[in-house]
C-alpha cells in the first residue's frame, strides 16, 4: 500500500447545516462497503480524499459526464451510507468525506480507498 496522503482542509466558519446523515455511532461497515462497491462512487470518494481544493465540492468539480439525476443518486447514496457529508448552498450541494468519523469507526478503510487504482477504461 502506498503512503498517499489524505487531504483534509479546515472547516470554514458559518457553514450551512449538513443534510440528514447517520450519526457516527450508527455507521455500519456493510452499508459503507455497499456504497463503495460502485466504481463511480469509489472514484468520487478517492478524488475528494486526494485532490480536494476546497473544504467541500459541488458535483461539477468532479468532471463526471453523467446525467444530473444519476449523479444525485450517487451522491445521496454516499451521504446516506455516512461516507460523505453534504451541505446545501442555495441551489448547490457540496460534499466532503467524513474522514474523522470513518477513521474512528473503520480504521484503515480510507487508506484502502486512496490506495485503489481506478481502471483506465473510465
The Cα radius of gyration reads: 14 Å
- Total helical segments: 5
* Principal-axes shape call: globular
Helix content: 40-55%
CATH H-level name... which superfamily?
Answer: Winged helix-like DNA-binding domain superfamily/Winged helix DNA-binding domain
Q: What's the structural domain tally?
A: 1
What CATH calls the topology is Arc Repressor Mutant, subunit A
Widest sheet: strand ordering? 1-3-2
Span of the ends, CA to CA:
22 Å
Largest sheet: 3 strands, antiparallel
Q: How many extended strands?
A: 3
- Please, what is the oligomeric state? single chain
InterPro entries: HTH_ArsR_DNA-bd_dom (IPR001845), WH-like_DNA-bd_sf (IPR036388), WH_DNA-bd_sf (IPR036390)
Protein name: Helix-turn-helix domain-containing protein
GO molecular function: DNA-binding transcription factor activity
Question: Can you characterise this structure?
Answer:
- This protein has 122 residues and is an alpha+beta fold.
- It has one domain: Orthogonal Bundle (Arc Repressor Mutant, subunit A), CATH 1.10.10.10.
- The chain is built from 5 helices and 3 strands; from the N terminus they run ααβαββαα.
- The chain has a 3-stranded antiparallel β-sheet with strand order 1-3-2.
- Strand 2 and strand 3 form a beta hairpin.
- The longest helix has 14 residues, at 68-81.
In short:
The protein has 122 residues and is an alpha+beta fold. It has helices at residues 29-36, 39-51, 68-81, 99-105, 109-115; strands spanning 57-58, 84-89, 92-97.
Amino acid at each position: 500500500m502506498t503512503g498517499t496522503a489524505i487531504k483534509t482542509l479546515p472547516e470554514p466558519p458559518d457553514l450551512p447545516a449538513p443534510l440528514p446523515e447517520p450519526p457516527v455511532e450508527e455507521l455500519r461497515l456493510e452499508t459503507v462497503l455497499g456504497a463503495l462497491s460502485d466504481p463511480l462512487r469509489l472514484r468520487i470518494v478517492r478524488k475528494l480524499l486526494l485532490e480536494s481544493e476546497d473544504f467541500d465540492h459541488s458535483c461539477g468539480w468532479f468532471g463526471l459526464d453523467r446525467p444530473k439525476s444519476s449523479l444525485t443518486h450517487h451522491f445521496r447514496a454516499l451521504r446516506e451510507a455516512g461516507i460523505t457529508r453534504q451541505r446545501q448552498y442555495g441551489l448547490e450541494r457540496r460534499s466532503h468525506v467524513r474522514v474523522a468519523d470513518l477513521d474512528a469507526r473503520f480504521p484503515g478503510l480510507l487508506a484502502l480507498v486512496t490506495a485503489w487504482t481506478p481502471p483506465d477504461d473510465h
